[in-house]
TrEMBL record, chains A, B:
Name of this protein: Sugar kinase
Residue intervals of the Carbohydrate kinase PfkB domain: 5-279
Top-level taxonomy: Archaea, Methanobacteriati, Methanobacteriota, Stenosarchaea group, Methanomicrobia
SUPFAM superfamilies the UniProt entry points to: Ribokinase-like
PROSITE patterns linked: PFKB_KINASES_1 (PS00583), PFKB_KINASES_2 (PS00584)
GO process annotations (BP): phosphate-containing compound metabolic process
InterPro entries with a match to the protein in the record: Carboh/pur_kinase_PfkB_CS (IPR002173), PfkB_dom (IPR011611), Ribo/fructo_kinase (IPR002139), Ribokinase-like (IPR029056)
MF term (GO), any: kinase activity
UniProt record similarity statement: Belongs to the carbohydrate kinase PfkB family.
Length: 299, 299
């Protein structure tokens, strides 16, 4: 039976807007279309793992509107375990408001809502945990107690204290970053990339449309993207991590974990929203084999 | 008994956000706080007139969410007649998303929702109408049939064709603009201010915190603002128009109409949102008399 993957971070309700122009200071612009989507990095990853048939658990802070919004039942429907959710009935759930213009420029506003309380909480002990964008103090506490730690500081890296970052890295077994973030991790810790890699063991660096590179044990495994007609890049990184992590807990070699991640990501970019077009394992496997050849199960 | 004032334009649901910074292209910024408010220029004016004890009617296009949002019952509670609403069950209601930073810069996104259909509609015949920000084609059609036309093109002036603007102005008895808009009206029509004034009869130009000037019959009546501790300037202009128009239909002289408008506006700016702190007639009268002396009823 699969290991339970505990995913820590946001379950957010996103309003995604298509606009003629980004409204800068004292401008007013019309909205072409907008809709509400379920998002938040951790919830995106959890639901993607569940859709692939994995066992996973979401550890987030949510507000009183979480049930009434329909998000709770959506996660439950796909089999995500919500028993460790931190519930704050008098707060709003985390929300993002993302405006995208015709040239794909984005302007984002983010309300932490109930997540402001994460830093005060005492996290549970978990076995295999992935730390997505979240409160750095909470992430540092849970990393100390977990059996295996996968860590993705994401764009919140700028909010991490050096102390929290170093504490998490000391407990991290697998690090996901993009090429800008890995540079910042080096700058903040005063370590070079090779020192970081030696400390952690496995570092995956993503390069947008150029794919990703898995660094491990002196090797650098290059993973291409799986090309599809992309509608919306949002959520591609989360889908990649979901595929990668589930494959990893199923004992696939790292190169195959990366290719499975890239395949799952190719589904996420096909439609607008982060959770609208996620594949089951068989669907993923079919597209994997069209792109990479036979997917051989680990021994 | 009071004349019915028919107010044409938007009934919008506004989300007002306090943010650290306006997010320009490819920036992401946190939200400090946000809340939903009922707004839309025409609905703001209608509800303010109703609160003052006047009779008024809202002519707007609304979506299927208008009843479920609670806005419909809010307007009914205050006695606004909704019998001439244009209802589009499969559309969203008009919405604005307004982001305000700590230096009071604003960035606004606006979704017309059901209001996109206004241009196709055949408006009703009304007696005394105020045209707030709305579709210019609809405004031009209703102005042709109305007994008395008050017109406020507002920031939508840039969307008016010269033809619609000239057609409305020919039927307008009273024009409200700010100092930028009156210049644009002159530019678009190729007329100087005196020509516009002669054609219309009464032109009220607003100057933000410097008050307003009523131009009529060779006179220019200067109206100061009523000073209060201002929390949110949004809705001040709508409240001014509401007070002015109700006083006008009650046969007060123009100078008193302006001072009543300024008094009502001073309530609107006291709290966040456009409809949160509107006065009844007696409350208005009390503050009017503290600032301007006795409010003598018209003969």
């Amino acid at each position: 039976m699969d290991k339970v993957i505990s995913v820590v971070g946001h379950a957010a309700i996103d309003l995604l807007f298509d606009v003629e122009n980004i409204a800068v200071h004292n401008e007013s612009h019309p909205i072409i279309e907008y809709n509400e989507y379920y998002g938040g990095g951790a919830a995106n990853i959890a639901i993607a793992i569940a859709r692939l048939g994995g066992r996973c658990q979401l550890i987030s802070a949510v507000g009183g509107d979480f049930a009434s919004s329909g998000y709770e039942s959506e996660l439950e429907k796909h089999g995500v375990d919500l028993s460790l959710l931190h519930r704050f009935e008098n707060e709003k759930s985390t929300r993002a408001f993302v405006f995208t213009d015709r040239e794909h420029n984005q302007s984002t506003y983010f309300d932490w809502g109930a997540s402001v309380h994460l830093q005060e909480l005492d996290p549970p002990v978990v076995d295999f945990v992935h730390l997505a964008t979240s409160d750095s103090t909470y992430n540092a506490k849970i990393a100390k107690k977990a059996g295996f730690v996968s860590f993705d500081p994401g764009q919140d890296l700028v909010t991490y204290s050096q102390e929290n970052l170093e504490s998490i890295l000391e407990n991290t077994n697998m690090l996901f970053t993009n090429r800008h973030e890995i540079q910042r991790v080096c700058d903040m810790t005063g370590k070079c990339f090779d020192d970081i890699l030696e400390m952690i063991g496995t570092v995956i660096v993503t390069y947008d449309v150029k794919g990703s590179i898995i660094h491990h044990n002196g090797e650098a495994i290059s993973i291409p993207v799986v090309s599809v007609k992309a509608m919306d890049p949002t959520g591609a990184g989360d889908a990649y991590r979901a595929g990668f992590l589930l494959a990893y807990t199923r004992n696939y070699p790292l190169g195959i974990c990366g290719r499975i991640g890239a395949t799952v990501a190719s589904f996420a970019v096909q439609s607008i929203g982060c959770q609208t077009d996620l594949p089951g394992w068989e669907e993923m496997e079919k597209r994997y084999e069209e792109n990479f050849g036979e997917l051989v199960s680990p021994a």
